[in-house]
Every structure is written in structure tokens, then in C-alpha cells.
Design brief:
About 20% of the residues lie in helices and about 40% in strands. It is α+β, with helices and mostly antiparallel strands. A hairpin with a 5-residue loop joins strand 9 (about 155-165) and strand 10.
Length: about 190
């Protein structure tokens, strides 16, 4: 569930704003809702009123209008802030395996290791570490190390990617976080 909040003073005076004025609304996440992803339909609904050029006052009457906006997509990466760690191995050990999730995936639409690495980086929205974003040209397998803050909790991801002889790539994903729900959310987002 998402709740929309906007400044009621700004909303009340919106009709006085010119077309070049920026109006912002914000989105607050219900803490009990987990980490929802998906699309949110958007529309700008307003009452257009004529303004008397002599007085600058709007007419009493106006007409309702609606303008459809692009949908807003919320993905797992939207909950992530890219951060780096000095020593991935040490951080991996410090977080420990208490909240570790391991999953295996077959990515049949990705044909090369580099394509898979690029897709994982973009999808997860995390920072690659130790130069693991580059795959050597002759490699048949590759390990990607990722780090981020997911809603304030540190997350480390180790993705082992192997070319599948029948096409595509196979990926073994290990996720460690300070919270089990965060590790589970990251793993579920890939499936």
C-alpha cells in the first residue's frame, strides 16, 4: 500500500501557479507493507479557471480536466542506495550467514556473461566491487560482487554466473543482509 501526501497549502493554491512552477508530491511507504514493486497509474486532475488580467483574480467557475501521466514503475532497485565497502570478504564474514538466502536461476534470455552482469547490476541497483563489473572476454564463468543499502540495511550479493551450453546463463545468487526480510525481498525480486 502506498499513501500519497502533498502539501495542502500548495494544493489549495495550485490554481494560482503558472505553467513553469514545479509542484511536488511525495510518497510514503507503509512500514507493514513489505517492499512492494509494480506500476502506479498517474493522472493530473485539476480545475482550469480563467484569470482576469486586470485584477489577477481567477473566475469563480472553471472546468474539470484530467491529464494522463506516465505510470511510475517501482522496482527493487528503487529501495537501494549504492555504497561501497573497502573489503568485500571481510564485510561478507562480518554480516555472517544468519540472514543469508541462496537461490539458483536460469537466465535464458541473456546470451553472454557480460550481458548477465550488466542486467544484474541494473536490476539490483547496487554498487559493483573489486572491478567485477568487467568480464574477461574468454571467461566461461564470472563472479560479481555487489553492495548496497536496502532501506537502511547493508546488503551484500555474490552472483556466480556460468554460461549454459544449451544457451543463456545460469546464476547462483548468495545474498547476505542484516535483516532476513531484506535478503528475502532481494531474492524474490529476481524470480
Amino acid at each position: 500500500r502506498f499513501f500519497f501526501f502533498f502539501n495542502t497549502q500548495a494544493a489549495t493554491e495550485l490554481y494560482t501557479l503558472s505553467l513553469t512552477t514545479l509542484f511536488r508530491s511525495s510518497l510514503r511507504r507503509d512500514l507493514d507493507a513489505g517492499f512492494p514493486t509494480g506500476s502506479i497509474g498517474c493522472a493530473l486532475v485539476f480545475t482550469a479557471k480563467e484569470v482576469d488580467p486586470a485584477t489577477g483574480e481567477p473566475d469563480e467557475e472553471g472546468y474539470e480536466d484530467e491529464y494522463q501521466l506516465e505510470e511510475v514503475e517501482i522496482s527493487t532497485a528503487d529501495y537501494v542506495h549504492r555504497v561501497t565497502v573497502a573489503d568485500f570478504g571481510r564485510s561478507w564474514d562480518v554480516i555472517g550467514d544468519t540472514h543469508e538466502v541462496m537461490e539458483a536461476y536460469s537466465l535464458t534470455t541473456l546470451k553472454t556473461l557480460q550481458d548477465a552482469v550488466n542486467a544484474i547490476i541494473e536490476f539490483m541497483g547496487m554498487q559493483t566491487l573489486d572491478g567485477t563489473h568487467n568480464v574477461p572476454s574468454s571467461a566461461k564463468s564470472h563472479r560479481v560482487l555487489l553492495c548496497g543499502l536496502f532501506m537502511g540495511s547493508q546488503v551484500l550479493v555474490r552472483a556466480d554466473i556460468v554460461l549454459d551450453p544449451s544457451g543463456g546463463v545460469n546464476m547462483q545468487l548468495a545474498i547476505r543482509s542484516e535483516r532476513d526480510d531484506v535478503s528475502q525481498a532481494i531474492a524474490a525480486s529476481v524470480a
